[in-house]
UniProtKB/TrEMBL annotation:
PANTHER family: SUCCINATE-SEMIALDEHYDE DEHYDROGENASE, MITOCHONDRIAL
Stated name of the protein: Succinate-semialdehyde dehydrogenase (NAD(P)(+))
Family (UniProt): Belongs to the aldehyde dehydrogenase family.
Active site: E260
Chain ranges of the Aldehyde dehydrogenase domain: 21-484
Gene3D superfamilies, per the entry: Aldehyde Dehydrogenase, Chain A, domain 1, Aldehyde Dehydrogenase, Chain A, domain 2
Gene source species: Caballeronia sordidicola
Length: 490
């Protein structure tokens, strides 16, 4: 069956600036394609610096009034936006699957996940507390108050086109900031649909602005925000090289940055682990969105005593996964996002086998299904000199590394410039405490493969970036602290 939206006007093709749908100032457009078939879905505005500047102008005009609303008034608007997202869950899920390729059940699940951030930060808007500092001198009162940082530029990836932009926009709006946003060129339609629903929920004109741009036009468009001193914060999810570029190029205006960057997550299975639970956890963590998530396990370390058994159990389960287009209700793995992604996966698998690895499941492209499909893959006898150990594969490939003792596993897990997520399975309570503290990561899953929650702080250390999204901590990145000292009170 084809993916069809009941409310077809959710497929928008123009920029959303100052409450209006506008073509790019150049009149140029670019195609958005279905990764399952390679067919064109529609064309959207191909924006440049002039469009980015127009979005910032609108956000600057809207900022004073939005900032001055009562927190409960902003919260009410966000709650209406959340309700509209959930009311359109089927259509938004279909749109995600159409432009990104993930199975329809995952697309619908992403809508609920993204909406949970909107609901969470709607409530957090009313809990932005300051402090009265204990009196230090007679006649003086000292207070610390939190204020919205100003205009926020949100730049989001293609793998979760709704959740990533929702968890950036929601805290910004809750804090009293206005937003300019650019979604990934592969998946701009979901962000535009969210902007439409935000407008219908009562988000005032200029408070949320979304522009789209092709790969070629994106750098100069975003560059305008990097140079503009009115943009006080950038929040970005994507690759580490791009994150470093944003940090460098925004330095002249000393913007606040939140960077959720690349990962190379280890997944450790100790001898004392519940192997069935570890396999289930790995499947949940690795094969969500076909392995195209920043917290996917990229290196699976299995202790030698259970290596063979774990490899057998995992290979059986992986071999049973259904690869199909999102339009197939039984699909568990969809297409990769594009041919570049597919080529990288194939290169990693070929490199591994050339270095002596064995393929236990999958290991090949599936051209009979469409242009961008790769079979879920398990590779044994992986070693540190293989590309898939040092580079994030970002696909449905599980390499199994063997280790002998805890110290070796922890050292190997930390032997990477990245530090976003780590996972391990053990039933030894003392080991759980030791390894949790020893792993160099912003997120640690202990006997658990599904980590994300709107109530939890999400972010990394080392070259996986800084700042946190979600939770009560996620609002702080959109606020500045003002110290007020009032004298003459004696």
């Amino acid at each position: 069956m084809a993916l069809v939206l009941e409310r077809k006007e959710l497929i928008c093709s123009k920029n959303f600036i100052d409450g209006q749908w506008l073509a790019a100032s150049s009149g140029e457009r670019f195609a958005v394609t279905d990764p399952a078939t390679g067919e064109r879905i529609t064309e959207v505005a191909d924006s440049g610096p002039d469009d980015a500047r127009a979005a910032t102008d609108a956000a600057a005009r809207a900022l004073p009034a939005w900032r001055d609303l009562l927190p409960k008034e902003r919260a009410a608007i966000l709650h209406r936006w959340n309700a509209l997202m959930l009311a359109h869950q089927d259509d938004l899920g279909a749109l995600i699957s159409l432009e990104q390729g993930k199975p329809l059940a995952e697309g619908r699940g992403e809508v609920a996940y993204g909406a949970s951030y909107v609901a969470w930060f709607a409530d957090e808007a009313t809990r932005i507390y300051g402090d009265i500092i204990p009196q230090q001198q007679r006649g003086k009162r000292m207070t610390a108050v939190k204020e919205p940082i100003g205009i926020v530029a949100a730049i989001t990836p293609w793998n979760f086109p709704l959740a990533m932009i929702a968890r950036k926009i929601a805290p910004a709006l809750a804090a009293g900031c206005t937003v300019v946003a650019k979604p990934a060129e592969d998946t701009p339609l979901t962000a535009l649909a969210l902007a439409l629903l935000a407008h219908e929920a009562g988000v005032p004109a200029g408070v949320l602005n979304v522009i789209t741009a092709s790969r070629e036009k994106a750098v100069p468009a975003v560059g305008n925000w990097l140079e503009d001193a009115r943009v006080r914060k950038i929040t970005f999810t994507g690759s580490t090289p791009v994150g470093k570029y944003l940090a460098r190029e925004s330095a002249n205006t000393l913007k606040k940055l939140s960077l959720e960057l690349g990962g190379n997550a280890p997944f450790i299975v100790f001898d004392d682990a519940d192997l069935d639970a570890a396999v289930a956890g790995l499947l949940a963590a690795k094969f969500r969105n076909g392995g195209q998530t920043c917290v996917c396990p990229n290196r699976v370390y299995v202790q030698s005593g259970v290596y063979a058994k774990f490899a057998e159990l995992l290979s059986q389960r992986v071999g049973q996964l259904k690869v199909a287009p999102a339009s197939d209700p039984s699909a568990q793995i969809g297409p990769m996002i594009n041919s570049r992604a597919l080529d990288k996966i194939a290169r990693h698998v070929d490199d591994a086998t050339s270095h002596g690895a064995r393929i236990l499941a999958g290991g090949k492209r599936l051209p009979e299904l469409g242009p961008n499909y790769f079979a879920p893959t398990v590779i044994s006898d992986a070693t540190a000199d293989m590309l898939l150990c040092s580079e994030e594969t970002f696909g449905p490939v599980v390499p199994l590394f063997r280790f002998e003792d805890e110290a070796e596993a922890v050292k190997a897990a930390n032997d990477t410039p990245f530090g976003l997520a780590s996972y391990f399975y053990s039933q030894d309570v003392k080991r759980i405490d030791r390894v949790s503290r020893a792993l160099e990561a912003g997120i640690v899953g202990v006997n658990e493969g599904a980590l994300a929650s709107e109530a939890a702080p999400f972010g990394g250390v080392k070259e996986s970036g800084y700042g946190r999204e979600g939770s009560k901590y996620g609002l702080d990145d959109y606020l500045s602290i003002k110290y007020v000292c009032q004298g003459g009170l004696d």
